[in-house]
Write a structure and sequence with these properties.
26% strand; alpha/beta; 300 residues; eight-stranded mixed beta sheet; 9 helices
Length: 300
């Protein structure tokens, strides 16, 4: 196994920005999974954890969830990805990529190899090697599974997430071999004085210095989770990632079952709510809401 290169601090903004730039945003569905409803929308009670893991819950009562990634076409910085979704190998031999625990956690996957991001990019005439930047909301397998497909890219990940992922294991939700490569990892330090507020978010960075793509610190689901705000010709789109699994998380504060830190999750949720209040026309994309996913446009 290759050893991950020593990550370097991110020097933001990255090169390639252009005044007035907007990005074309393509939602990419890499797979769907089915899981117990109580995993996505927690239940209370002594044995609630059983329902969260599907014990005694008929599969016809499980929810379908998308495993997404997003292509952002920047007019001068080139193609940018937000997360990588599932690697194509997951469609054939899930255990080889997801590991033993991951195979249990994601035990009802529907995917074909053509759904992998690399294959979808080629269908759009984009070679994976031409992807310059990948923004990682976090390093859980459904987001980091296909990192190996983009060896030429610079990966932006928060310092807190890097520390959690490299010191954690599968029980913390990480499969190290997915990101244990000698790639260009750049750490975003949201505790830096260079971080600034943006429309409800206390700590954020402008990735290219032109307002087209911003990253906001939204920990709680994991220690270093980030969300992404994209400026498109149709307006702003908030890629919330797993800071909100479902629309009901945003609208009703109905939290998922498992969280790294509930206090941080609720604080991030308050910031997302404030962003929505300040930007009511923004499209908000939850991490794993199938109903919300089906309402998305093919491109923004």
């Amino acid at each position: 196994m290759a050893t991950a290169a020593e990550p370097q601090p991110a020097e933001l903004p990255l090169a390639g920005g252009r005044d007035g730039a907007e990005v074309r945003l393509h939602p990419l569905l890499t797979a769907t999974v089915r899981g117990p409803r109580a995993w996505f929308l927690r239940e209370e009670g002594r044995f609630a954890w059983r329902k969260a893991f599907g014990l005694g819950v008929p599969k016809d009562q499980w929810l379908t969830a998308p495993i997404p990634a997003f292509l952002l076409e920047h007019p001068s910085a080139g193609p940018v990805l937000v997360d990588t979704g599932f690697h194509g190998s997951v469609a054939v031999t899930p255990r080889s990529n997801l590991g033993a625990f991951g195979t249990i956690l994601y035990r009802d996957i529907e995917m074909n190899p053509e759904q992998a991001v690399a294959a979808q990019l080629r269908e759009k005439g984009i070679e994976p090697s031409s992807v310059n930047t990948v923004i990682m909301t976090h390093f859980h397998p459904d987001h980091a599974s296909a990192i190996s497909d983009f060896p030429e890219a610079t990966f932006l990940v928060s310092t807190a997430e890097w520390e959690a992922a490299t010191h954690g294991g599968q029980r913390e939700g990480y499969v190290k071999r997915q990101f244990d490569h000698g790639f260009h990892y750049r750490l975003v330090d949201f505790d830096s004085d260079d971080a600034n507020s943006f429309s409800g978010f206390a700590r954020s960075f402008d990735v290219f210095g032109d307002g087209s793509i911003r990253i906001a610190f939204t920990p709680g689901h994991t220690a270093g989770h980030m969300s992404v705000v994209a400026q498109t010709p149709h307006g702003e789109v908030l890629l919330a990632g797993d800071a909100i699994f479902m629309r009901r998380t945003l609208e009703e504060e109905h939290l998922p079952h498992m969280l790294f830190d509930e206090h941080l999750f609720r604080r991030s949720l308050r910031e997302i709510k404030q962003y929505v209040k300040e930007t009511p026309d923004a499209v908000v994309v939850p991490g794993h809401d199938w109903e919300a996913w089906q309402k998305l446009e093919p491109v923004y």
